[in-house]
Specification:
Helix content is 18%, strand content 53%. It contains 2 helices and 9 strands. The chain is elongated, with a radius of gyration of 21 Å. Residues 12-23 have low confidence and may be disordered.
């Protein structure tokens, strides 16, 4: 009898924990913008540059503990460089904010909206969605991992699809060592 009561107690505790975890992971979870970050890295013939972009807002949606949706709005006015300092940093950030690159006066935000999500393993997903940069929306596919209240995603973006053509050999000849590769990387580390 004591063994049966003990087993029932263990089952009840496990059921409560499972129920609580599932309930916690249901619905829309706001991304904590101050605890989250998006790192960008762009490549050129002579090296690379990297920096961060602030998140304005975002949510991840869950049903029965599984990711089912999401939306992230990035504050393009916050784009900054982290690998150089001084005057060159100021010039580079100004250039990234100009119409040659992201035109942040006219397009202060970029937006990623999840459309289709496929679980590829425990805590990992293949996501298809729409990315809007400079008012241009294009489909994109990327991987995301989720552990507890943290998520990580890596995206490779062809900037020319969003009218960011400066220094692209696809549009300009004779750039030589001034050429900038069309693809850049975004790595998002999110807390919710």
């Amino acid at each position: 009898m004591k063994k049966s009561i003990k087993n029932l107690g263990i089952i009840a505790i496990l059921a409560f924990i499972t129920f609580s975890f599932t309930m916690f992971n249901n619905g829309d979870k706001a991304i904590k913008v101050k605890e989250s970050k998006v790192v960008w890295k762009g490549y050129k013939v002579t090296g690379s540059h990297e920096g961060v972009i602030g998140i304005k807002s975002g949510t991840l949606s869950f049903t029965d503990g599984e990711l089912t949706g999401g939306e992230i709005i990035m504050d393009m006015t916050s784009i900054s460089n982290t690998d150089v300092e001084g005057e060159y940093k100021t010039k580079l950030e100004g250039h990234l904010k100009s119409d040659d690159f992201f035109g942040v006066k006219s397009h202060p935000t970029s937006k990623l909206v999840f459309q289709n999500i496929i679980a590829t393993g425990k805590n990992s997903y293949k996501i298809s969605g729409n990315l809007t940069i400079k008012g241009i929306t294009k489909p994109i596919t990327f991987d995301m991992s989720i552990y507890g209240n943290k998520a990580n995603a890596s995206l490779k973006i062809d900037r020319t699809m969003y009218d960011v053509r400066y220094g692209s050999t696809a549009f300009f000849d004779n750039l030589k060592d001034k050429a900038i590769y069309d693809e850049f990387d975004l790595v998002a580390d999110l807390e919710f």
